[in-house]
């Protein structure tokens, strides 16, 4: 294989109309200037001609080749309700992208649909003892334990940065009690730079990480309703896969006034130390994420999309365009990329380009016809638009 | 920090199960410092979802090559050994903070436990390049695991301890330290956590043992630098390079922490992997 050429081979990213409600700003380069620009190999299972998944090549540049004509004009906008309109349906998942600044040197964050920041609590938390992460077949376990500096520090340190970005930042909020959730949300309400709330009622890694709220329809509805009363910010609620039937929980959350659902958080699991003398993780239990989780997430999205009328944002093992298309077909209007970022930080941005290119290839001027195609036929497919705001 | 396509130039097994691989990666070969690391993508991410962190083992800016040194411990490292010259790897780097050498330090004591040599090897080169005297103390279980002296520059003083006595002094590498602690201006260590903790205890009592606390040179004239700052680390006698299971390696996931004496978890990938020994709460503290 030839040594990669220099960046002169990397063309400029296709022009994308600026969001009408925000000033257009020149974006930083999509790829590091040393990125190679040679031909790329198509990833197995991927539908797009520019897929790089599965290739050994760095993929920072893969999405930057000229997409098929028309891709730039494909409408990828998604409305998650209450005025939260994303430029595209590719988000980055909470916990995998920090506060949006950590990957800034290699990822053009402005091209993402939205960023879900690390789980934020009322008071600072130091999290769980290490080791906190380990790789498992087709996935990984983590038990960070909601380490975060607390909501005030997050607001002070990061909100001014977020305000300057075009990409909306959703603050992932965790708590131990309804009062905790409400207080955190109250403090975030009205802070410039905070575009919305993702209510994390499903962290499996702390004794009181809110998971109790995700396991029971009444509790889930109660916390959602309480937060709903505290803020007019767009409100996503993140479902747990650690339940026997997610549908009544999803219904209760929707009925309590959530604008959208995100599904799913990690699945509880453990790993053992190499000598099998004890569990490996410092916290014993961890949350499984990555491709191994995808069928579970796909099932839950499929179930939830049939019982609620609010948008569903899928999370779980997205590593290539085919995964995005699967989740859309199962009824999601958007996806979050999480664990795969660790292996391939520029994957989410590349998926934006690949999704546009795929729509263009199919002759679509919007990605919305891809949504819900695998759901049982029923009158009216799930809408990509959120519920109307009813004060 | 950049995403770099690194082309494999050479791969060889230097010890049983231990490999050194050389990559053409000019972007990493300039501007990287001893103690920093690269995060390497192994295989297809649907199977192995995490990158692997490796210390920058050596750097040759002239040819634009870097090397990494690893033991085959799992599927990711086994996959690496099957690469052939010409194959390219996706590397993210350079990452983490480097060792801080005080400009006035003339005698550098390097203490490596086993594969910990990979974290210190580049510091050997940097020390010699800068005209310092370098002593490298190396510990291993037995002779078969001892880093070959042929891979070291002639200028370095290389002392070996093996636990079974099959090569060098019988015992642990920490037993070799007292003979050098008066000579050394600064010490740098990389290896298993218990070894680093033992060295940290030794370092904490060094000034009293040597009786030089008030007679010795005043590094910085008693001015207090913020803990963890490069200046504070330069003044510390012992700096350690710490290993921890890692996720993102850029500070986003908080997966790779160790507890600091401040009571705040420290990210190995971001605040580290090099720390001053006194920054770390060696007994944990969670």
Structural commentary:
The complex is a heterodimer of chains A (391) and B (286). Chain A is of the alpha/beta class and 391 residues long. Chain A is globular. Chain A has an eight-stranded parallel β-barrel, surrounded by five helices. In chain A, strands 5-6-12-11 form a four-stranded antiparallel beta sheet, with no helix packed on it. Residues 1-67 of chain A have low confidence and may be disordered. Chain A is built from eight helices and 14 strands. In chain A, helix 2 packs parallel to helix 3 and helix 3 packs parallel to helix 4 (247-255). Chain B is built from six helices and 16 strands. Chain B has a seven-stranded antiparallel beta sheet. The longest helix of chain B is centred in the middle third of the chain and has 13 residues, at 117-129. Chain B has helices spanning 26-29, 75-81, 117-129, 193-204, 206-210, 230-235; strands at residues 2-15, 18-24, 37-40, 52-55, 58-60, 65-71, 88-95, 107-113, 133-140, 157-162, 169-170, 186-190, 238-241, 257-259, 265-267, 274-276. Chain B is globular and about 55 Å long. Chain B has 286 residues and is an alpha/beta fold. The chains are: A alpha/beta (391), B alpha/beta (286). At the A-B interface, strand 5, strand 6 and helix 7 of A face strand 1, strand 7 and strand 14 of B.
Instruction: Tell me the greatest interface.
Output: A-B, 55 and 47 residues
What characterizes the major β-sheet of chain B? 7 strands, antiparallel
What's the main sheet of chain A like?
8 strands, parallel, barrel
Low-confidence stretches of chain B: none
- How many DSSP H or I helices of chain A? 8
**Helix percentage range of chain B:** 10-25%
Q: What structural class results from the helix and strand content of chain A?
A: alpha/beta
Shape of chain A: globular
The SS-based structural class of chain B is alpha/beta
- Number of DSSP-assigned strands of chain B: 16
Proportion of beta-strand residues of chain A: 5-15%
Q: What is the chains' assembly state? A: heterodimer
Question: In what range is the share of β-strand residues of chain B?
Answer: 25-35%
């Amino acid at each position: 294989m030839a040594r990669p050429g220099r960046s002169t081979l990397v063309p400029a990213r296709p022009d994308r109309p600026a969001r009408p409600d925000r000033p257009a700003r020149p974006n930083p380069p999509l790829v590091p200037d040393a990125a190679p620009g040679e031909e790329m190999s198509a990833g197995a299972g991927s539908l797009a001609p520019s897929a790089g998944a599965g290739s050994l090549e760095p993929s920072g540049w893969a999405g930057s080749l000229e997409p098929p004509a028309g891709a730039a004009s494909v409408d990828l906008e998604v409305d998650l309700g209450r005025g939260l309109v994303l430029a595209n349906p590719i988000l980055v998942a909470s916990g995998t992208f920090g506060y949006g600044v950590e990957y800034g040197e290699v990822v053009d964050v402005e091209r993402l649909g939205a960023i879900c920041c690390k789980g934020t609590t009322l008071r600072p938390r130091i999290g769980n003892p290490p080791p906190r992460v380990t790789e498992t077949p087709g996935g990984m376990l983590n038990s960070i334990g909601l380490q975060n500096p607390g909501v005030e520090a997050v607001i002070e340190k990061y909100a001014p940065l977020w305000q300057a970005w075009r990409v909306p930042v959703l603050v992932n909020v965790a708590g131990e009690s309804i009062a905790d959730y409400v207080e955190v949300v109250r403090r975030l309400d009205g802070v410039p730079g905070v575009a919305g709330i993702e209510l994390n009622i499903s962290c499996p890694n702390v004794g009181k990480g809110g998971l109790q709220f995700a396991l029971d329809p009444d509790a889930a509805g109660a916390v959602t309703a309480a937060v709903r009363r505290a803020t007019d910010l767009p409100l996503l609620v993140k479902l747990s896969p650690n339940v026997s039937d997610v549908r009544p929980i999803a219904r209760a959350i929707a009925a309590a006034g959530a604008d959208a659902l995100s599904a799913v958080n990690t699945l509880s699991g453990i790993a053992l130390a190499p000598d099998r003398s004890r569990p490996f993780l410092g916290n014993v239990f961890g949350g499984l994420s990555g491709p191994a989780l995808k069928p579970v997430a796909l099932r839950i999205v499929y179930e939830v999309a049939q019982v609620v009328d609010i948008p569903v944002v899928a999370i779980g093992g997205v590593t290539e365009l085919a995964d995005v298309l699967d989740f859309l077909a199962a009824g999601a209007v958007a996806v979050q990329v999480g664990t795969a970022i660790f292996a391939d930080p520029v994957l989410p941005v590349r998926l934006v380009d690949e999704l546009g290119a795929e729509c263009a290839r199919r002759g679509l001027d919007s990605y919305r016809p891809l949504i819900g195609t695998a759901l049982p036929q029923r009158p009216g497919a799930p809408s990509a638009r959120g519920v109307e705001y009813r004060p | 920090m950049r995403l770099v396509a690194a082309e494999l130039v050479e791969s060889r097994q230097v010890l049983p199960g231990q490999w050194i691989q050389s990559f053409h990666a000019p972007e990493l070969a300039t501007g990287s410092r001893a103690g920093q690391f690269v995060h390497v993508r192994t295989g297809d991410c649907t199977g192995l979802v995490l990158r692997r962190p490796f210390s920058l083992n050596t750097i040759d800016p002239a040819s634009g090559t870097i090397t990494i040194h690893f033991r085959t411990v799992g599927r990711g490292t086994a996959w690496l050994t099957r690469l052939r010259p010409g194959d390219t790897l996706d590397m993210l780097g350079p990452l983490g903070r480097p060792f801080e050498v005080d400009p006035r330090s003339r005698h550098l004591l390097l203490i490596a436990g086993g594969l910990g040599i990979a974290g210190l090897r580049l510091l050997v080169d940097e020390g010699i390049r800068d005209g310092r005297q370098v002593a490298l103390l190396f510990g291993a279980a037995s002779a078969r695991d001892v880093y070959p002296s042929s891979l070291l520059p002639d200028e370095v003083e290389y002392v070996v301890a093996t636990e079974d006595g099959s090569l060098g002094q019988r015992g642990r590498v920490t037993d070799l330290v007292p003979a050098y602690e008066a000579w050394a201006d600064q010490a740098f260590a990389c290896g298993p956590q218990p070894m680093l903790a033992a060295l940290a205890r030794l370092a904490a009592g060094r000034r009293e043992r040597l009786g030089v606390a008030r007679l010795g040179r005043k590094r910085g004239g008693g001015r207090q630098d913020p803990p963890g700052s490069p200046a504070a680390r330069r003044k510390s006698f012992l700096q350690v390079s710490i290993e921890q299971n890692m996720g993102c390696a850029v500070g986003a996931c908080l997966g790779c922490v160790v507890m600091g004496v401040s009571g705040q978890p420290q990210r190995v990938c971001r605040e580290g992997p090099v720390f001053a020994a006194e920054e770390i709460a060696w007994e944990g503290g969670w």
